[in-house]
Design a protein that fits this description.
97 residues; mainly alpha; 0% strand
Length: 97
């Protein structure tokens, strides 16, 4: 049921959603300099964008682990990606002009 290679699997859909969210917010922070619906400085948005890119790397690593049926390390990588995603929002909001 939870397989990374099956497009109808909930795990695949979660990984796809995490990938798309990270790409969207990384683009918003790094290129546009403003994260959606947030009041951030340009520097805060850039730092948040970098955190979203690092989170994106961990989502790809989690996908590779799940693809090779190493669920434990895939879960750890996905948890790290989620933590970095949340940290990106926190840092983007906290960094002053």
């Amino acid at each position: 049921m939870f397989e990374a290679d099956n497009p109808t699997s909930p795990l695949f859909l979660v990984l796809l959603a995490a990938f798309l969210l990270d790409v969207t917010f990384a683009w918003s922070g790094l290129v546009r300099g403003q994260i959606f619906n947030m009041r951030t400085s340009l520097r805060g948005a850039r730092v948040g964008g970098v955190m979203f890119v690092v989170s994106l790397v961990f989502v790809v690593i989690a996908f590779q682990f799940y693809w090779n049926y190493v669920e434990f390390f895939g879960s750890i990588a996905l948890a790290i990606a989620g933590g970095l995603f949340a940290a990106g929002f926190l840092l983007a909001e906290r960094i002053p002009d």
